[in-house]
Structures are given as structure tokens and as C-alpha cells.
Design brief:
The complex is a heterodimer of chains A (about 325) and B (about 750). Chain A is about 45% helix and about 15% strand. Chain A is of the alpha/beta class and about 325 residues long. In chain A, a hairpin with a 2-residue loop joins strand 6 and strand 7. Chain A is globular and about 70 Å long. Chain B has 3 domains: about 220 residues, no CATH class; about 350 residues, no CATH class; about 60 residues, no CATH class. In chain B, helix 24 packs antiparallel against helix 25. Chain B has about 750 residues and is of the alpha+beta class. Chain B is flat and about 115 Å long. The chains are: A alpha/beta (about 325), B alpha+beta (about 750). Chains A and B meet through loops of A and helix 23 and helix 24 of B.
């Protein structure tokens, strides 16, 4: 890590993020905060779990990001009969070459939309999650690198749980953030209605950032400075989740690292080469909420998510900010 | 980003107000313990009620409304009964105060009630001060003032907050505490303390303490500067009290009175201004002469009291004490006699002059060496004595010229043994045993009698008189049991009188310990003592101390006197420091009259002049040396060295001016051991400016820019102070600008 992020690098990063944000904002109206969080995930090299109702723009969000970046995009519709080979690919025998040839699955893309991930069987889910963790696929002893950058947008419906296989907590930990898109504001929805756009295929976006630039941004994120008192503050938040009686278990070490990287990415996104406490507590809920579950679960998923969020807000209010 | 310190809520302020009010009430009530009035059970009751209510704050809620309506009529009835029930005025007045304070403790106070608590408390504190003039008064006033200021501040804050947030005196729900306000029901001391700790800015507290200290210092300076006035005389409080002094130093004592006092180690009086080598090794502080043997005890006879009353002074500040001429000491000793000791002043003998710190009413008898104030003093008495003698031989010209018949006719009881014929016969038998057929002088008889007593009785405080009829002292003499100083002295007096030697008992104090911190002699109640004075038959009373261990007849020989001086007890430790502080209080507050004021001013002026003179002499010496050095002839080599020295000096000065400040900052950072080149200091300062420049203040764009830069200093990569300075300058400007652009 170098001592300083150079001013030109900072300016380039800020400009790249601004272009991406602008491009995506044209298709996802009124959701600046959601876009910013997606970009944070991108800069941090993490994956996003979008938990929302159907038809609020999950696919559009992923597609608009992929199109803005000049990156390969693929979509996998997860169902209960989907096999791991349908996701990662399969080795088939090539008669002409007289050998097994690996045929790449849809996961070989830069932005992968795993739609309704909880409808697939745990075996298929874990195949995808392995790719998410390692950014490569191993088939028949051969390792195949997936694209760089590599980002998975997984979606799931928080209401309809009939015939689903909920992701276990250990696998939820692989997602950097869980975000909600939510319904647009009436004025934004009016604009959407006026536009008449119905399918994400119809989105017309020109690439504003090359995928090499994204790799550079991800490297730059790691160089954003985190001062000791901010690190202590972050640690205090992590420890608070572990001592909080409402939670079954606190956030893992991976969770703490995720929050740090996300805060660094947000700082970079905002044109800073240092992290503010604000970066930390703003991202606490999207980064931590899906990693925590309540001691007394009421059965209603939405209610539980609200309770977790409320407890996290209480923790933020209780932990003293560095002055 | 919200960096603001958490604020106390209205309930917190009410809880704090309640706590401070109760502490103030208990503090002021405890003043009653220092007053020698019959209010101690009342004070203890107030303290118990205060602590109980603090522990269970909802208890006052149980008092029904008719209880509050009846409270004041009941207090009025209680006071009336107290006033007309024979209690002295001051005691009744203090009890009223304590009753009112108790009522205020057990009710949920409103703002005006808090003010009433402050006023009631102030009355008690000032009353204690006027009545005792003790050091405890200064401490209590100091604590009380701080506590009262805090209470008034919190009361005002609570009032303002209530104005903002609506009424806070909402009644808590539930039948558990019927009319307790919500803040009382929720009061948890631990929680309140934690809230206080997190909400209070300790720098503000430190500033407030500093300001309070400043006010105290200024008050002290004003005290030394303004003309004196008699605080005690400014009120009529001392006339409202009927003070009782210790029975051991009154005109009539029973056996054991003096011994009881010996169990008390508190200070009886202090002798200031005496040089340790001029003080006798074992001084005998005479207070009361007891001549009449009656009903198994000794007392001052009516004749002796009449002699004392013959020379009564009204509002007199100074009198002569029988020592005249050029011989003798002119040393001036200042006495501070604690309240509640006696109306008789402790004296070692005759003196040149006695001077009080204010005009007094008193009686004086020079041959008896006694001075008695008109009333038992309820406050500390300060007086100066010049040239006091301390010899064990007390010449008495009046007694020398008087025949036994004349003395007995005058009511004096120096010869009288008021005992039955049987007791007299026993005494006579013992006297014969002591005289052993010899015709002894008074002094020789004293020697033998004292030895005889010591051979039959050992010293002990646990003395028990043998059962039986007859005179108590004779019974003790007959037995072989231990005895205390009073019994030895009384026994000796009866034996001496039976032998035909006039004798009298004297009570007072013996000895004293030297306090090196204050340079004064401290005499404690535990040094109370009784001894005898025997008429030598030719014109003087000889001091005889027959108590074993203190055995002495007349003056000790010079070697023994010197040894006694050397072996005087020296006080050390914190107790001695406290006594030293007490003496300082007496010198500078109690006895600080205009003469002392002028003396202090003269001392200060003299000190300043002395230091100025020393400085001038030093400067002159230095300049003379420098001139001599310049005028000294030198070689070319030496001139070259001088030139190099001045060039080096100039370069050093230039470098200091150029890099001195950064170097200083570097040094400060190094000394503090934090960070490299003051980076930690930069972070702290940035944090300070961020707090002073919250978002939304001042000119929006400028504030945002400055805040962003400050945030970079605070949370960004380490920056040296030089690089940060211009940002702090802009921050200062932005803070100033924010004052004129409040949203």
C-alpha cells in the first residue's frame, strides 16, 4: 500500500463513479442511494443480495450496471431443477478433438444476475457461492477463472417462501450487502410510466467505464486510509453485535472486514482518500443486517428484518463516535 | 455526522436538582453538630430522613395531600411549644430550621422551595460560623457555596427545559407511589451518574471550578484588604445562647470531672507566638482556684469569688497583670481558647498586659492570677498576654498580710477541713506519720507528703473510692487503691491543711505539644490536670503536683527544666497539619485585626522591596563583571574567539526565530509522546474545530469546504502542523462568520 492516493487517481475514480451513477440513474429513477450502494459493492469487489418484491427493478439495476461498464452480463433464473452444471458449465466430449472440452456456464460473465437464488437446491446454490468466494470454477481438476471484475447480483423474494431453500447464514456471509430497492416515489414512477419501457433488454446505455478501470478502482479502494479511531469505532460496532442479547450470534470477522472495505469504497466514491465514521455507520445496516438473526424469531421474515434493523440503529446510537 | 455530546433530559435535570437539594439540606443541617446546642438528635433525624428519601425517592409520594396542608400548622405549633417550653431562643430557632429543612427534604420541591432550602441552609451555616468561628465553618461555607451554585444552575436549567418541553412534573402511573412525579419513580442513582458522566463536558466543569477558586481567592484578598469589623458582634446571636462549659473548669467540681475531660483529645487552646525555648518544658496552665473543702469535694468559696469579682471590667480590651519594671520577659503570646472550655482563662502566672481582640466584660484578680470572663464564651476567644511568668512560686502580698482569722472571716477556705471528727483523727494520724516528729517547713512537708502518697497509691484513671461513710478523699487515703490527679491533689491538700499549712486546689492544663507546621503550642483537653498550691508561710504559694509521674514541688532545677524542654512532644502527621491550618485560620481570620492587617501589608511591602533590592544588586554585579571582562586586555587570538562567539550567537538567534516555533511544536509533541511531529495534536485540534463548526452553521458553501478539510485532517492521513495551520485559520474565520449567519 502506498502512502498516498495520488490526486489524479482520485479525480479519475470520482469521474468514473460519477459517470456510472449518471448512466444508471437514467434507468433506475429516484434510487440514488441504491445506486450508490451498488457502486460501493462494485468498488469493494463484493456481491449484492437484492431482497425485494418482483417488478421493482432488480434485473434492470444489474443490467444497467453491466451495460454502463462494457462488461459481460448474464442472467440465471434459479429453479428447483437447476443443476450446478447449468450454472458453472460442463465438460463434454468433443468428437472432433477427441477430448473433453469445458463448456462455460452463464457464470462466466462480469455481472451475473442470479434471479430468485433461493428457489434452487442447496447444491446448486453452493456451486454459485463457491464461485462468488473464489472467482474461479474447478471442473474435472481444471481451474477456470471467471471474468474480472466479477459481481453477482442475487435476488430473492422476502414474502413468497413457498417451495424455496433459504440460504444458510454461512452463505449469506458471502454477500457484501443486502439491499432493498423499494417502490419508487410517485413523481419518479410517473416518469417511468411516461417512458413506457417494459423490458431491460430495451435499455439503451453506452459503456462509460472500461472494465480495466473497474479493476483499478477496486485496487484503489484498498488504499483508502482508515484512521485508528475510525477502526476502533468500527470494531466497537462489531463487538456490540456480539454482545447484543437480541442477536443469536454477532457479526463474523469476515463481516467486519466487509464493513471496512465497504466504508473505504464509499469514501472513494465520495472523492475522499480517507474513511469517515459516517461511512461506517451509514453502511452498517446493509452490510450487517443479512448476517444477523434474532434470538427470538417470530416467523415473519419482514418483521424480523425490521427488528434487526432497529437493533442495529440502536447500536449505532449507543456506540460513541470518534471525535 | 452527529458528534454532539448527549444532552441531559428534563427528567435527569429534575433528578439532579432533587439530589443537590437534599445534599445541601443535609450539609447545612449537619452544621448543628458543631453548635454546642441541644439539637444533635434533631440533626441526626434530618440526616436519616435525607438518606432514606435519597434511597427511596418515591417515598414522599406516599404523603397524602392533607399531610402537606397540615405540615406548616404543625410546625408552627411545635415551634411555639418549643419556645415557651423553656428552650433557649437560639436552640429553638435552630430546631425550627431543622424542621423546615426536614419538610423540604420529604416533599417534591418546586423552584421556590429550592431557593428556600438554600436560604435555610445559609442561615444555619452563617449561624455556625458566627457562633464558633471555627475552621469547620470555612470548610462548610466553601462546600455550601459550591453546592448552592450548582443547585441554582440546575434549577434554572430544569426550569428552562420545562419551558421548552412542557411540564415535567407529571405524576407517575401506578398505585405504588401515589403522587410521585415520573422523574422520581425513574430515579436510579447509577444511571443518573452514568448520564452525568457522559453528558458533562469536564473542561467546562474544570473551568467552573477554576472560576470558583478564583472567586474564593479574590474574596480572600478582599478580606485581607477591607477594614475589620466584628462579625460576631454584628449579630445578636451570642446573646441568645446560654452556653455551658465543661464542669472540670467551673467554680465547683466533683471528683472525676477533670479526668473525664482527659478522654477527649481535641484542642482546648492554642498558644501562638511563643518561642519554643522560652516556653517552660512542662507549663502549668492555671484556670480555677478551688479553696473550699465541702461535701467531699472542692469548690471556689464565696470569699474567693468575691475577691475575684472585686475587680470587674466592663467592655475593656486591655489590663495590666501585676508585672512591672524592666526585668522579666516581654514576649507576647497569643491564645486561642476554644469555645466550650471555660470562662476562666489559662494563665501560667502574673503578666505585664492582657489584651483581648475586642472589648470584653471580665473579672481579674492579680494575686490569685485568675481572669474570668463575665459569661461562658460560646465562641472562640482570642487574647494576647505579654511577659507572662511561669514560675511555680507565686508571691501573694495580700495573703501575706492577712491573718488566718481575717481570711476565714473573708470566706476563704485555705485552712478548712470539712470532715467528721473521725476523719480528722485519721488525717492527723497520717500527718504524724509523714512528719515523723519533725517540725517541717511547708516545702519539706510537701516533699514528704507527696512521697507518702506515692508510696500508698499508684496513678490510674480507673480510680474507685472505697465504700463507706465519711469524706470521700479520706476514704481514698485510707485505702490503697489507685487514684487520678484530682484525688492526689485533694488528698494532699487535706493532709497539708491538717498539718497547718494553707493549701488550695488548682485545675487547668499541664503541658502541651509543639506543632512545627504552625510554630505554636497546642494544648488538648486530654492534658487537663489538677494540682495543689501550698502557702510557704512567708508570702508565696508553692506549686505542688503530688500526682505520681508528675511529682514536683516548686520549680524544677535548671537541668531538669532544660531536659523537659528538649523532651517536649512534637506533633507530626496529618493531624498536626490540620492543627496548623486551624492556627492559620485563627491568625488570619479570627484574630486578624487592623494591626495585623497593617503588619501583613508592611510584610508584603518589605518583601517586595527586599527582592527588588536583591535583583538590583545582582544586576549591578553582573554588569560590573561584564564591564571588567570587556575592559580586560586581550590578544588577537582571544578577539577571534570573541568574534566567533558573537557570530555563533547571532546565527543561533536567527535560527531560533526562523525555526523556533516548529521546533517547539515538535518538542511538545515529543514530550507528550504522541505521534510524529505533532500529528496527534493536529488531529485533536481538527476535532475541536469540527465540534465548533457543526454542519448547517454559517455560510453553507464555505462551512462545507472547511469541514471537509478539517475532516481530512482529523481522519485522513497524518499531516504535519505546518500544513494544517492555514486550515485552522480558515476554520477560525468560519466559526466567526457562523456567529453572524445563524440559521
Amino acid at each position: 500500500m502506498s502512502d498516498f492516493v495520488s490526486a489524479p487517481a482520485m479525480a479519475d475514480a470520482r469521474s468514473a463513479f460519477a459517470r456510472l451513477h449518471e448512466g444508471m440513474a437514467r434507468t433506475i429513477r429516484g434510487k440514488d442511494e441504491v445506486i450508490e450502494r451498488v457502486l460501493v459493492c462494485l468498488a469493494a469487489g463484493g456481491h449484492v443480495l437484492i431482497e425485494d418484491l418482483p417488478g421493482v427493478g432488480k434485473t434492470t439495476l444489474a443490467y444497467s450496471l453491466a451495460r454502463s461498464m462494457d462488461c459481460a452480463f448474464s442472467r440465471i433464473q434459479f429453479t428447483s431443477d437447476l443443476l450446478p452444471s447449468d450454472v458453472i458449465g460442463v465438460a463434454i466430449y468433443d468428437e472432433a478433438r477427441r477430448e473433453f472440452v469445458f463448456r462455460r456456464g452463464p457464470v462466466f460473465a462480469n455481472v451475473v444476475l442470479a434471479d430468485e437464488i433461493n428457489r434452487a437446491t442447496p447444491k446448486t446454490q453452493s456451486a454459485l457461492l463457491e464461485v462468488m468466494d473464489r472467482a474461479r470454477v474447478s471442473v474435472d481438476g481444471e481451474t477456470h477463472e471467471v471474468g474480472r471484475p466479477f459481481m453477482v447480483f442475487a435476488t430473492q423474494n422476502p414474502v413468497d417462501y413457498e417451495g424455496t431453500f433459504p440460504l444458510p447464514e454461512s452463505q449469506m456471509d458471502r454477500f457484501l450487502m443486502r439491499i432493498h430497492i423499494g417502490y419508487p416515489e410517485p413523481k419518479d414512477e410517473r416518469e417511468i410510466l411516461r417512458g413506457g419501457q417494459s423490458s431491460y433488454d430495451a435499455i439503451q446505455l453506452n459503456p462509460v467505464v472500461q472494465h480495466d478501470d473497474i479493476v483499478r478502482l477496486q485496487a484503489l479502494t484498498k488504499e483508502v486510509f482508515v484512521e485508528d479511531s475510525v477502526l476502533d469505532y468500527l470494531l466497537a460496532l462489531v463487538v456490540a453485535t456480539r454482545t447484543e442479547a437480541d442477536f443469536k450470534a454477532g457479526v463474523s470477522v469476515r463481516g467486519g472486514l466487509a464493513l471496512k472495505t465497504a466504508a473505504q469504497a464509499r469514501a472513494l466514491l465520495r472523492g475522499r482518500d480517507f474513511v469517515l465514521p459516517e461511512d461506517v455507520f451509514t453502511l452498517l445496516e446493509p452490510v450487517f443486517a443479512h448476517r444477523l438473526s434474532l434470538t427470538r424469531s417470530g416467523g415473519d421474515a419482514l418483521e424480523e428484518r425490521r427488528a434487526v434493523a432497529a437493533t442495529l440503529r440502536r447500536i449505532v446510537a449507543a456506540v460513541r463516535l470518534p471525535e | 455526522m452527529d458528534n454532539a455530546r448527549p444532552e441531559l433530559e428534563t427528567d435527569d435535570l429534575h433528578q439532579l436538582r432533587w439530589a443537590l437539594g437534599n445534599v445541601l439540606a443535609m450539609l447545612s443541617a449537619s452544621c448543628g453538630l458543631f453548635l454546642d446546642l441541644d439539637v444533635v438528635p434533631w440533626v441526626l433525624a434530618v440526616l436519616v430522613v435525607g438518606v432514606t428519601v435519597c434511597r427511596w425517592p418515591t417515598l414522599p409520594g406516599w404523603i397524602p395531600s392533607w399531610g402537606h396542608r397540615l405540615a406548616f400548622p404543625l410546625i408552627v405549633v411545635a415551634v411555639t411549644v418549643d419556645f415557651y417550653g423553656g428552650t433557649d431562643t437560639l436552640t429553638a430557632l435552630v430546631r425550627v430550621q431543622l424542621l423546615l429543612l426536614t419538610y423540604r427534604i420529604i416533599s417534591y420541591r418546586k423552584r421556590r422551595d429550592d431557593l428556600q432550602v438554600v436560604l435555610l441552609g445559609l442561615f444555619l451555616v452563617v449561624l455556625t460560623g458566627v457562633m464558633t468561628l471555627s475552621l469547620a465553618f470555612a470548610v462548610q461555607l466553601f462546600v455550601f457555596t459550591g453546592c448552592a451554585l450548582a443547585l441554582l444552575l440546575v434549577t434554572t436549567l430544569a426550569d428552562v427545559t420545562r419551558g421548552v418541553n412542557g411540564t415535567a412534573d407529571t405524576v407517575a402511573a401506578g398505585a405504588g407511589h401515589r403522587s410521585a412525579p415520573a422523574w422520581a419513580a425513574e430515579l436510579r442513582w447509577g444511571r443518573l451518574l452514568r448520564r452525568l458522566r457522559s453528558a458533562v463536558d469536564w473542561r467546562i466543569v474544570a473551568l467552573a471550578v477554576g472560576l470558583f477558586g478564583g472567586v474564593v481567592a479574590v474574596t480572600a484578598m478582599l478580606f485581607t484588604a477591607i477594614p475589620r469589623f466584628e462579625l460576631g458582634r454584628s449579630f445578636f446571636l451570642d446573646q441568645l445562647i446560654t452556653k455551658k462549659t465543661r464542669t472540670g473548669f467551673s467554680e465547683s467540681i466533683q471528683f472525676g470531672d477533670v479526668t473525664r475531660i482527659q478522654e477527649d483529645t481535641s484542642v482546648a487552646f492554642t498558644v501562638d507566638g511563643a518561642s519554643p525555648d522560652r516556653l517552660p518544658g512542662v507549663p502549668y496552665w492555671r484556670m480555677v482556684v478551688l479553696d473550699e473543702h465541702r461535701d467531699g469535694g472542692f469548690r471556689s468559696s464565696a470569699g474567693l469569688r468575691a475577691e475575684l469579682a472585686r475587680r470587674s471590667w466592663q467592655r475593656r480590651a486591655a489590663v495590666e497583670g501585676g508585672v512591672t519594671g524592666l526585668k522579666g520577659s516581654r514576649e507576647r503570646w497569643t491564645f486561642y481558647l476554644e469555645p466550650g472550655i471555660s470562662r476562666y482563662l489559662p494563665l501560667t502566672g502574673a503578666y505585664r498586659e492582657l489584651r483581648f481582640n475586642r472589648p470584653m466584660n471580665f473579672q481579674q484578680n492579680i494575686p490569685l492570677r485568675m481572669v474570668a470572663l463575665a459569661n461562658d464564651p460560646s465562641e472562640l476567644v482570642g487574647f494576647e498576654i505579654t511577659g507572662m511568668e511561669s514560675s511555680a512560686i507565686l508571691p501573694d502580698a495580700v495573703q501575706a498580710e492577712r491573718t488566718r482569722e481575717a481570711a476565714e472571716a473573708a470566706g476563704l477556705g485555705y485552712w478548712r477541713v470539712a470532715a467528721s471528727a473521725e476523719d480528722r483523727a485519721r488525717l492527723k494520724r497520717w500527718v504524724n506519720e509523714i512528719q515523723d516528729g519533725d517540725d517541717l517547713t511547708a516545702e519539706a512537708f510537701a516533699q514528704r507528703a507527696a512521697r507518702w502518697l506515692a508510696a500508698r497509691h499508684r496513678y490510674g484513671l480507673e480510680s474507685e473510692l472505697p465504700a463507706g461513710s465519711g469524706d470521700a478523699v479520706v476514704r481514698w487515703l485510707e485505702g490503697r487503691g489507685p487514684g487520678h490527679c484530682e484525688l492526689f491533689a485533694a488528698g494532699f491538700a487535706l493532709l497539708a491543711r491538717t498539718a497547718g499549712h494553707p493549701a488550695r486546689l488548682v485545675t487547668g492544663f499541664k503541658g502541651g505539644s509543639w506543632n512545627e507546621f504552625s510554630g505554636s503550642l497546642i494544648v488538648r483537653n486530654s492534658m487537663a490536670h489538677a494540682w495543689c498550691e501550698l502557702w510557704d508561710g512567708s508570702g508565696a504559694w508553692i506549686r505542688v503536683d503530688p500526682t505520681p509521674g508528675a511529682y514536683a514541688v516548686g520549680d524544677p532545677d535548671p537541668e531538669l527544666a532544660a531536659a523537659q524542654q528538649r523532651s517536649r512532644t512534637i506533633d507530626g502527621g496529618w493531624g498536626a497539619r490540620l492543627d496548623g491550618l486551624r492556627v492559620f485560620w485563627y491568625r488570619r481570620v479570627v484574630n486578624f485585626d487592623q494591626a495585623a492587617q497593617l503588619e501583613l501589608v508592611e510584610d508584603v511591602r518589605g518583601g517586595v522591596r527586599l527582592w527588588l533590592e536583591r535583583g538590583r544588586t545582582w544586576l549591578k554585579g553582573v554588569s560590573d563583571d561584564a564591564m571588567a571582562w570587556v575592559k580586560r586586555p586581550r590578544s588577537a587570538e582571544q578577539w577571534r574567539l570573541v568574534l566567533i562567539f558573537f557570530v555563533a550567537l547571532s546565527l543561533s538567534l536567527w535560527a531560533g526565530l526562523r525555526w523556533g516555533e516548529p521546533a517547539l511544536w515538535w518538542l511538545v509533541a515529543r514530550l507528550r509522546g504522541r505521534g510524529r511531529r505533532g500529528q496527534a495534536a493536529v488531529r485533536r485540534e481538527a476535532a475541536r474545530w469540527l465540534r465548533r463548526l457543526p454542519p448547517g452553521r454559517g455560510v453553507a458553501g464555505e462551512v462545507s469546504r472547511v469541514r471537509a478539510e478539517l475532516e481530512a485532517l482529523r481522519f485522513g492521513r497524518p499531516v504535519e502542523r505546518d500544513a494544517a495551520r492555514h486550515i485552522f485559520v480558515r476554520a477560525r474565520q468560519a466559526v466567526r462568520g457562523a456567529r453572524w449567519h445563524r440559521p
